[in-house]
Every structure is written in C-alpha cells, then in structure tokens.
C-alpha cells in the first residue's frame, strides 16, 4: 500500500517540522537529564520576568541580547518546545547558552544589589549630616547605628535565608 503525499503537504511538513510549538511529554522533561536542566533554567529565568527584567534596564538588555540567538518565547513560555529547541537541548548548545545567560544575569544582580546598598548608605549618612544634633556624640551614635543597619542589610542580601 502506497501513501500519496501531495507536494504542498511535504513542503509544509518540512517547513513546520522545526517551527511547530508543542508541549514536551512529561516523561521527557522528568527523566532526560538535559531536559530537566533546561526546564529548570527556563523556569528560573521565567520567574524573574514580571519583576527584575521589567525593573532593571541592564538585565533587560541582557535578556534582549540572549533573545538575539534564541526565540523570544523561550523564556516567556517555559513549557513550550519546537523540534529545533529539542535538538539544541539534546546536543547541549541550549544548556550552554542559557547557563552563560544566567551567569551574566546573576553577576549583574549581585553588582546591582551592592550598588543599591552603597547608594542607601551614602543617602543615610548624608541625611544624618544634614540633621541638627545638639551634641557631636548624638551625631556619631546615629552614624554608627545607620552603618550597622546598612551592613546588616548588605549581609542579608549576600547570604539570603534559604
């Protein structure tokens, strides 16, 4: 028995094979080690979309740079795949590019938090200097309290409670 396939259908199939989005089977995402890693990376980045990528311009630029080589929906739809993405998962290239992207974002987050902490410390100390304290000791004690608070906040940001 011969199956006849029209030329148009064959062309459409060849065109759509790498582009048609689908949801990966649960077993593949659960048991294939590379698929598990990619799913984890995609979910981690997806969780930052409504917060960090919308608030921080530099992080958003990193995202756009990543999206120059990958489809834009890769982060926005973490459970959607195409055959082209599956091939990248299996050969490890997507894992490598997503890991590099995640390292850049993580480095930026750490630097951004340090800059914010330094800015807060500067603003608090300049506010203390503008206040009129009756004695020099009151002013010094307020500066010490504020420095301790800022250093405690920065330590908490560096070592978050898990």
Which key phrases capture this entry?
two-stranded antiparallel sheet, 9 helices, DUF4206 domain-containing protein, elongated, 162 residues, RH_dom, 2% strand, mainly alpha
Secondary structure: helix percent: over 70%
Quickly count the domains. Answer: 1
Average of pLDDT: 76
Q: How many whole angstroms does the radius of gyration measure?
A: 25 Å
Encode the helix/strand succession as letters.
Answer: HEHHHHHEHHH
Strand content: under 5%
- Could you describe the largest sheet, including whether it forms a barrel? 2 strands, antiparallel
Side by side, the strands of the main sheet go 1-2
User: Based on DSSP secondary structure assignment, what is the total number of beta strands?
Assistant: 2
Indicate the structural class.
Answer: mainly alpha
- Model regions low in confidence, pLDDT < 50 over at least 5 residues: none
**Count of individual helical segments:** 9
Shape: elongated
Measure the end-to-end span: 62 Å
Domain Rubicon Homology: 5-113
InterPro entries: RH_dom
Protein name: DUF4206 domain-containing protein
């Amino acid at each position: 028995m011969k199956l006849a396939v029209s030329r148009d259908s064959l062309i459409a199939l060849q065109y759509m094979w790498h582009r048609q989005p689908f949801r990966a089977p649960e077993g593949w995402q659960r048991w294939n080690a590379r698929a598990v890693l990619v799913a984890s990376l995609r979910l981690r980045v997806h969780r930052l979309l409504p917060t960090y990528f919308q608030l921080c311009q530099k992080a958003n630029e990193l995202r756009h740079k990543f999206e120059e080589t990958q489809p834009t929906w890769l982060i926005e739809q973490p459970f959607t795949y195409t055959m082209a993405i599956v091939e990248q998962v299996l050969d490890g290239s997507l894992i490598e590019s997503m890991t590099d992207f995640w390292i850049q974002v993580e480095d930026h987050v750490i630097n951004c938090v340090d800059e914010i902490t330094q800015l807060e410390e500067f603003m608090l100390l300049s506010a203390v200097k503008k206040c009129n304290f009756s004695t020099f000791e009151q002013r010094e004690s307020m500066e010490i309290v504020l420095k301790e608070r800022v250093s405690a906040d920065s330590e908490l940001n560096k070592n978050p409670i898990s």
